[in-house]
Amino acid sequence: MDWLALMEGISLERLGSLHLVLLHLPIGFVVAAGLLELSRWRRPTADGAIYQRRLLAVNAVACLLTVGAGLVLASTGKYPAETLEWHRWAGLVCAGLAVAAWLAQARGRVVAARVALAALLAATVVTGHLGATLTHGPEVANFRVSARSGEAVKPVQSPAIASRTVSSNVFEKEILPILDRSCIECHGPDKMKGRLRLDSRAAALAGGRSGRPAIAPGKLEASELLRRVRLPRDDDEAMPPGDEPGLSVAEIAALDEWIAAGAVWR
Ligand code: HEC
Predict the structure, then answer these.
(1) How far does the centroid of ligand 1 lie from the alpha carbon of residue 79, in Å?
(2) What is the dihedral of CA 123, 124, 126, 129, to 10 degrees?
(3) Dist CA 255 CA 215 (whole Å)
(4) CA of residue 187 to ligand 1 center, whole Å
(5) Ligand 1 mean position to 62 CA, how many Å?
(6) Burial tier of 68 (Cβ tally within 10 Å: 0-12, 13-18, 19+)
(7) Which CA distances in Å does 172 have to 14, 74, 168, 177, 254?
(8) Are 59 and 2 in contact (CB under 8 A)?
């Protein structure tokens, strides 16, 4: 096994994006533990206590892993700082309560375990809500599924995300920063590598040396820019080239979505 290649493949970003998958586990466990506790309230059984202890143990571990991945994801700096800050604290509170509920249950402190579980349910709702207003993530994940399966490229949107798309200017907030940071130095007024400029819509539509449009509005497959940013990092044609960090999954998905929606420039 080529460990070096494996380690290179596991970027921090990918590790962090595990958060978006993991987070569903504690939500499921907490709801299950809440339901079990309700049924135990009516008819307490020894088995029930054992199941609850195991459930809370697994939940505590899932919470800690989710928070760990979340902290890594937060450090990628792609999320609005203020909401992120609240979401981070709420997530840490969740992890603390999850561990407390488990320890209390394991020591047979029924009341303490119930209080911790109730608080954990509430904290989970708050954390989930803050997380939903933050994410990019689910929007991105949903979008990529539909883009892959070749269906209409309309992202599956939650109401919170839909209103975000309407109320903010995607090009200015998401696309321009990517181009400015990663592409313009070589595809702008100073240098025109590959005879391509990416500082105006007309230039991007015209494309460069290859003759293919860098951006073909509404046509993901025909957009050379997308093909280049999606190439494996060690491909000679990958953009940005060389040792520069590649675009993140979220950034590529944002470009996808923007081009699918017609590549509105401003
Ligand atoms: C360090 C300089 C550099 C950076 C940064 C850079 N490129 Fe390039 N790009 C090049 C060079 C050199 C070529 C020509 C060689 C080639 O086609 O691979 C090129 C070619 C291209 C082409 C093909 C043009 C054509 O039609 O032949 C596209 C599309 C492209 N780049 C997109 C991008 C995008 C998108 C980014 C930002 C994510 C980016 N590049 C960042 C240097 C750069």
Answers:
(1) 27
(2) 170
(3) 10
(4) 7
(5) 42
(6) middle
(7) 25, 22, 9, 7, 12
(8) no
CA dihedral 75, 77, 82, 88 (to 10 degrees): -20
Given phi > 0 = left and psi -120 to 50 = alpha, else beta, which region is 108?
left
**Structure tokens given for 142:** 């949903």
Q: Which atom of ligand 1 is nearest to the CA of 178?
A: 38
Tell me the CA distances in angstroms from 173 to 50, 164, 179, 246, one per residue in order. Answer: 51, 11, 11, 19
pLDDT at 5: 61
Residues 6+ apart with CB under 8 A from 36: 48, 51, 52, 55
How far is it, in rounded angstroms, from Cα 98 to Cα 119?
9
Pocket test for ligand 1, best of 184, 193, 209 (most atoms within 8 A of CB): 193
Hey, whose CA ends up nearest to atom 12 of ligand 1?
A: 193
Residues enclosing ligand 1, CB less than 6 A?
Answer: 182-183, 185-187, 193-194, 196, 207-210, 212, 214, 224-225, 228-229, 237, 239-241, 244, 247
Residue closest via CA to ligand 1's atom 3 equals 186
pLDDT band at 243 (very low <50, low <70, confident <90, very high): confident
Burial label for 34, CB within 10 Å (0-12, 13-18, 19+), is middle
Task: Determine which residue's CA is closest to atom 31 belonging to ligand 1.
Answer: 239
Render pLDDT for 123-170 as a digit per residue (tens, 0 to 9): 999 999 988 887 754 444 344 444 444 444 444 444 444 444 443 588
Peptide bond into 213 cis (omega under 30): no
Separation of alpha carbons 15 and 59, rounded Å: 20
